[in-house]
Amino acid sequence: MPGPKQERAQKTREEILRAAAEVFDERGYHGAGMREIMKRAGVTLGAVYFHFPNKEALAQAVMHEQPATIVPSLRSEGLQRLVDITLVWSHKLQSDPLLRAGVRLTSEQTGYGFDDVTPYRQWAQIMEECLVDGLAAGDVRTDTDVHALAEFLVAACTGLQAYSLLASGRDDLPERARTMWRLIMPAIATPHAAAGIDVSEEREAAVNGLTAGSGR
Known about the structure:
Layout: H1 4-31, H2 34-41, H3 45-51, H4 55-64, H5 78-92, H6 97-108, H7 118-136, H8 146-168, H9 173-188, H10 191-196, H11 201-207
Keywords: DNA-binding, Transcription, Transcription regulation
InterPro entries: ArpA-like, CprB_TetR_C, Homeodomain-like_sf, HTH-type_TetR-like_transc_reg, HTH_TetR, Tet_transcr_reg_TetR-rel_C_sf
Protein name: ScgR2 protein
């Protein structure tokens, strides 16, 4: 059980991460400054450097935080959970600075001199676990290579969000995600499961705590 000191330290770290995400989302890696992040977080510069030794470490922490913005809110399992990940992800990319910054930094990292494939591998592992559970439940076709499919889905989602960002500022990303599932679900799910897995706009609204058609 963490004590009050540990809880304060964790809270400070989370505040720094959130502030850093806002700045990285707005300005990119090169445009972000540690002093601006400090001011946004409402902490001292010493507190920032206590938790993160430099801007690179802070940026990588934001990159690695992506699953934590989505996975804890999920309640479904197996193949439906996999779909729900993308439905929450596509909606939160429109408004959550921590997720937006993580995706931006991951996508643009070669321009900063980074070479960190961890965020992609995190998502691939999470998706593969969903597919394994779906296979055990009889919802995923037995001839499916779940590892290869998980890797493909990460790449597909990466492309979806990049295209959507340029085409509509990500306004159409949820619809693109639902279209992806409508196209590939018949190829990966058993016939019985394919009829029951919900990829609808109503499902997207439900997992995001919205009313269908309410958008952001």
